[in-house]
């Protein structure tokens, strides 16, 4: 039976996608649910699985092409591929039998490669690296991006691409020091990020206010309960859960900061879906935590950890990235001391966290060394007044310097 492989329905607001790479070629056998091709949209990479086992007979669209929902990608001839092979009527030479056994062994091992995420596949392709050479540390031996990076780092000394023959004795490296340029097209995600950043600059009246927060009590709580928290909940106690909870309390007091602009209307959201900006191989992503006001500290930490892993492996779904009423970004993990984050449209505000530094502070008439962090709140001045923005940031400061407020909702 002939089956047409078509572009699946694309996520809402996504009109087309780029065909990144085929994982099969015409004539190859395929298994049901095996990923045939990767499609990259503005936000996520979609996998197109085989609807049935059979043989891929024809590819209609090549790598790099732009496709829309419903476009015909390929033709699949369904059927039992293994059963179609004619039986051998004469004894094969030993060498051919050995080759067949090796091929069969390869085919048995091959499905493991199908578990590779798009980010890992792309990294392997970029370095012309055989996946079977990379030890996997993920679940069931799955290869992660960090596994590939570790393998490449361990081969930095070799000056040759893994799999290339070693240089002959007497060969010398190119020391000409030639100056070259490399032109690389933006990925769809990077292009979309650029478009949204420019759009935010041109449409919103962005202004940033700053404050600083003493994290002594938060750090004391983390130190006191860190081990028992991890033992009980199976996830580490980080700083982000404190900032997320503090943000919810501030958003309750100043609802306009949780609002968005739609044409000439202000849309107030009576829920708290907070986006957490994370860095990935493909660029900046902002997965969303839904109903943070209803989440426990442990649920926040475990959800952020899971989303961060998905971002690194390239398995983030459109649902993970859709919506959000407020965003938190942490430049401190990269060492940033101060920054002015850009709004994530159509949201009206974004909170910027920064590096924690031990600094001398005047406390009750004494100079004490305290763990301090600068906070930045960029807001849309079209609907958020300076008074509200400043008091919002003060509310977050108060909650973090006196975490008991988070329990009492004050």
How many discrete structural domains?
3
Q: Classify the helix fraction into a percent range.
A: 25-40%
Q: Find the CATH superfamily of the largest domain.
A: Chloramphenicol acetyltransferase-like domain
Number of strands: 19
Mean pLDDT over the full residue set: 82
Largest sheet: 7 strands, mixed
Number of distinct helices: 11
CATH architecture of the largest domain: 2-Layer Sandwich
Q: Approximately how much beta-strand content do the residues carry?
A: 15-25%
- SSE string: EEEEEEEEHHHHHEHHEEEEEEHHEEEEHH
Net shape: globular
Radius of gyration: 27 Å
CATH class of the largest domain: Alpha Beta
Low-confidence stretches: 83-112, 157-173
Counting helices, strands and paired strands, the structural category is alpha+beta
What's the N-to-C terminus distance? 66 Å
What would you say this structure looks like, in words?
- There is one protein chain.
- The protein has 3 domains: 1-85, OB fold (Dihydrolipoamide Acetyltransferase, E2P); 91-160, E3-binding domain (Dihydrolipoamide Transferase, Irregular), CATH 4.10.320; 189-408, Chloramphenicol Acetyltransferase (2-Layer Sandwich).
- Helices cover 31% and strands 24% of the residues.
- The chain is built from 11 helices and 19 strands.
- It has helices at 81-84, 94-109, 118-126, 145-154, 188-203, 216-233, 240-253, 297-313, 318-321, 386-401, 404-408; strands at residues 2-6, 17-22, 29-30, 35-40, 45-49, 54-59, 66-67, 72-78, 206-214, 260-262, 265-267, 274-276, 278-280, 283-285, 288-289, 326-330, 349-353, 357-363, 366-380.
- The strands form 5 sheets. Strands 9, 12, 15, 16, 17, 18 and 19 form a 7-stranded mixed beta sheet that branches.
- The radius of gyration is 27 Å and the shape is globular.
């Amino acid at each position: 039976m002939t089956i047409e492989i078509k572009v699946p329905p694309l996520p809402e607001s996504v009109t087309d996608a780029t065909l990144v790479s085929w994982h099969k070629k015409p004539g190859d056998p395929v298994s049901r649910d095996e990923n045939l091709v990767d499609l990259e949209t503005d936000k996520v990479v979609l996998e197109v699985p085989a609807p049935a086992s059979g043989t891929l007979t024809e590819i209609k669209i090549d790598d790099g092409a732009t496709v829309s929902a419903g476009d015909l990608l390929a033709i699949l001839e369904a059927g039992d591929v293994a059963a179609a092979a004619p039986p051998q009527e004469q004894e094969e030479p030993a060498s051919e039998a050995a080759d067949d056994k090796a091929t069969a062994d390869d085919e048995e091992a091959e499905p493991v490669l199908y578990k590779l995420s798009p980010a890992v596949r792309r990294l392997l392709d970029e370095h012309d690296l055989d996946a079977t050479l990379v030890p996997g540390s993920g679940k069931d031996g799955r290869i992660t991006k960090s596994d590939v990076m570790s393998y490449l780092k361990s081969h930095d000394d070799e000056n040759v691409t893994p799999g290339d023959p070693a240089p002959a004795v007497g060969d010398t490296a190119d020391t000409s020091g030639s100056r070259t340029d490399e032109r690389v097209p933006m990925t769809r995600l990077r292009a979309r990020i650029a478009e949204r950043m420019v759009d935010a600059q041109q449409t919103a009246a962005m202004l940033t206010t700053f404050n600083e927060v003493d994290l002594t009590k938060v750090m004391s709580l983390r130190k006191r309960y860190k081990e028992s928290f991890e033992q009980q909940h199976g996830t580490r106690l980080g700083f982000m859960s404190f900032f997320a909870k503090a943000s919810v309390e501030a958003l309750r007091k100043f609802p306009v900061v949780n609002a968005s602009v739609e044409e000439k209307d202000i849309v107030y959201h009576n829920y708290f879906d907070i986006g957490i900006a994370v860095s990935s191989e493909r660029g900046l992503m902002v997965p969303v935590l839904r109903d943070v006001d209803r989440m426990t500290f442990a649920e926040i930490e475990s959800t952020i950890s899971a989303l961060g892993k998905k971002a690194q492996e390239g398995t983030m779904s459109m649902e993970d990235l859709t919506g959000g009423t407020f965003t938190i970004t942490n430049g401190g993990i990269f060492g940033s001391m101060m920054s002015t984050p850009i709004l994530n449209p159509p949201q009206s505000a974004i909170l910027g966290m920064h590096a924690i530094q031990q600094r001398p502070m005047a406390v009750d008439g004494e100079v004490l060394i305290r763990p301090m962090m600068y906070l930045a709140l960029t807001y849309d001045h079209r609907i958020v007044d300076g008074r509200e923005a400043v008091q919002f940031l003060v509310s977050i400061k108060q909650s973090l310097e006196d975490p008991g407020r988070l329990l009492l909702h004050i």
